[in-house]
Write a structure and sequence with these properties.
heterodimer; A: alpha/beta; Rossmann fold; Dihydrodipicolinate Reductase, domain 2; eight-stranded mixed sheet; five-stranded parallel sheet; 7 helices; B: alpha/beta; six-stranded parallel sheet; globular
């Protein structure tokens, strides 16, 4: 198997997580100091992403992508285009849900409710949430704010392709409650319940689909979302045949919407 | 030696047959069913005969019967207030009224006055308010001293037949809910507020005490709703849907500044134990779950208060304030239905 060199920011608060996840993909990535083919960066330092693009890296994986502002993303996209570098946003929830495929199928979803509890930025939480909702309903077209405060937002989203669905999104900053994302999609024929804990590195997502036969739960997969993104990126770099769950264009779109709710 | 209390039912419908009679059947030393009233004499007699009681079509035969200490009001909503007040005026020890206790603010005020005057313990069949799992979790949550930020009540239910078929054979056929109704969504939302949301209002008021402003409301066909209310500090999200083809999901979630409380209730109509309540704080989760459910605890609380062993678990003021809260919500979703003076 082709192995790519990868570097991380050893001073980042997420360095331990990044090392742990990379260590779980030893045949795909080899951690090095300095210039590397792949850079695993944090969005809290957007300049590092641009530097990586212009220094010859083939790909940059961006953790906490919801922290980036629209201007950061424009500059990042320009740098990626100029240098032929892949920028892969790495959300912490969406890849685990998207990995299970289309669980709701073509049923008409009446209500989708999602709540995310975060220890950090509410805008980042909303971007994470929009990324996760994409796995069920596609992209949001617009967002209406119902309530915002320093610790909470409540909003309604209208989806691009399934505008009849009522979509309610809540985000709460609650440092002690534990970070996690929930999603509940309801149709008359089927109901999808998702609970993803952002704490332990490899705690599996709880995903369950209910219908008139009872419950159907995919096999639990004990891996972090970043491991899924890095695996997808490895296939993309090696075969050119893969995509990552959440593209830079997806991120730019969702960030524009999220900025309306949480500037 | 324990004292056995006489019980009389006003209305012999599904709730009486599928909920209260099976619950009372398990506590024969505390309660005996004396009378069952229904406008359908055959139903009244049939249901009464199952529990050794007398059937009647007359309200007064229950309310004025001195052998009856506890009156259960399970009649249509519009009759609740008048029958509760009549039971208070007859000096009953307790009235257990189905939800909603009243359908107008005026009725609510009249009940408050009548019950205060007579000293009757007015209990509303909001079974989850008595659920021991929820109550234990609520006490633990209060000990934390946390403040709620987001309170969510979610009631996604399949057809009630799924559960009532497991408990009783109905004595009479119940009409199917209307489909394709031409009624305005606002009217349907009022019905939802006073019919389904109200189940959890006593719980919601613990975490979201001031209703605030309705900022979003939509009716979902054939019978469901999505509503969001905010008081500028806290948000209350209310979701409901009936008639799905999947297992039930009846939950309460409260996200606070330092904790996360989740309560999952068993469906109505079945004696399936308490809710499972999980309280997470600082990385650890405590689970509360018991073998008895809200209905059983509700009747236990009625007994204890009636024989003077305890104060009512939920005060008269709270019982009335609960229905006022639900009426305030109904008035916001359907201003045309607001009571005029």
């Amino acid at each position: 198997m082709t192995s790519y060199t990868v570097s991380i920011d050893g001073n980042s608060p997420d360095a331990a997580l990044h090392r742990t996840v990379l260590a779980s993909l030893p045949n795909s990535y080899r951690l090095v100091e300095g210039v590397a083919e792949v850079v695993l960066a944090s969005a809290s330092d957007p300049a590092s992403v641009e530097r990586a693009c212009s220094s010859g890296s083939r790909a940059v994986v961006v953790d906490h992508p919801g922290l980036l502002l629209p201007d950061d993303l424009s500059a990042m996209a320009d740098a990626a285009d100029r240098n032929g570098c892949i920028v892969a946003p790495a959300p912490r929830y969406a890849p685990r849900l998207a990995a299970e495929g289309d669980l709701m199928g073509a049923v008409e979803i009446e209500i989708l409710e999602s709540t995310i509890v975060s220890g950090g930025s509410l805008r980042s939480a909303l971007v994470e949430q929009l990324a996760m909702v994409r796995a069920v309903l596609g992209a949001a077209a617009s967002i209406r704010v119902l309530h915002t405060s320093t610790s909470h937002y409540a909003c309604e989203a209208t989806m691009m392709d399934r505008s009849q669905s009522r979509v309610l999104l809540n985000g709460v900053t609650s440092p002690c409650a534990g970070e996690e994302a929930n999603l509940h999609a309801l149709a008359a024929e089927r109901r999808l319940v998702v609970r993803i804990d952002a704490g332990p590195v490899a705690r599996p997502a709880e995903i369950c689909c209910y219908d008139d036969h009872g419950a159907r739960t995919p096999w639990p997969v004990h891996q972090h979302s970043h491991r899924i993104t890095l695996s997808q990126l490895h296939r993309l770099l090696t075969t050119g045949q893969s995509t990552v769950t959440y593209s830079l264009e997806d991120l730019r779109h969702d960030t524009r919407l999220a900025t309306v709710v949480v500037p | 030696m324990s004292r056995s209390l006489g019980v009389g039912f006003l209305g012999a419908g599904l709730v009486t047959q599928a909920i209260h009679l099976p619950t009372l059947a398990g506590i024969p030393d505390q309660f005996r069913v004396v009378g069952v009233m229904d406008i359908d004499a055959a139903v009244a007699d049939r249901v009464a005969s199952r529990c050794g009681a007398t059937g009647t079509t007359e309200v007064d035969a229950i309310v004025q019967n001195p052998e009856i200490d506890v009156v259960v009001v399970g009649s249509p909503n519009a009759m609740h207030a008048a029958q509760v007040i009549a039971a208070c005026e007859a000096g009953k020890a307790a009235v257990l009224a189905e939800k909603p206790l009243a359908v107008s603010h005026t009725e609510a005020a009249q009940i408050r006055a009548a019950a205060a005057e007579s000293g009757t313990n007015v209990v509303v069949g909001a079974m989850h308010a008595y659920d021991p799992g929820y109550r234990a979790a609520l006490a633990a949550w209060r000990d934390l001293g946390d403040e709620s930020v987001l309170t969510q009540s979610t009631i996604f239910l399949p057809s009630n037949d799924t559960f009532t078929d497991q408990t009783v054979e109905p004595a009479s056929a119940f009409p199917a809910p209307p489909t394709g109704s031409k009624l305005a969504d606002a009217t349907m939302l009022r019905d939802a507020a006073l019919g389904l949301v109200i189940h959890n209002v006593p719980l919601l008021r613990q975490f979201h005490p001031r209703l605030g402003e309705l900022v979003s409301a939509s009716f979902v066909q054939p019978f469901g709703y999505a509503m969001v209310v905010t008081d500028d500090v806290r948000t209350l999200e209310l979701l409901g849907y009936m008639g799905g083809r999947w297992p039930p999901h009846w939950t309460l979630r409260v996200v606070g500044t330092t904790s996360d409380l989740r309560v999952s209730f068993p469906p109505s109509f079945v004696l399936a134990g308490s809710s499972r309540a999980e309280l997470t704080c600082a990385g650890s989760t405590t689970v509360f779950q018991f073998d008895t459910n809200g209905y059983q605890q509700e009747w236990a609380a009625i007994y204890d208060a009636a024989v003077g062993e305890a104060e009512p678990l939920i005060s008269l003021d709270d019982v009335v304030d609960d229905v006022v809260y639900a009426l305030d919500l109904a008035d916001q979703v359907d201003p045309t239905g607001r009571e005029t003076s």
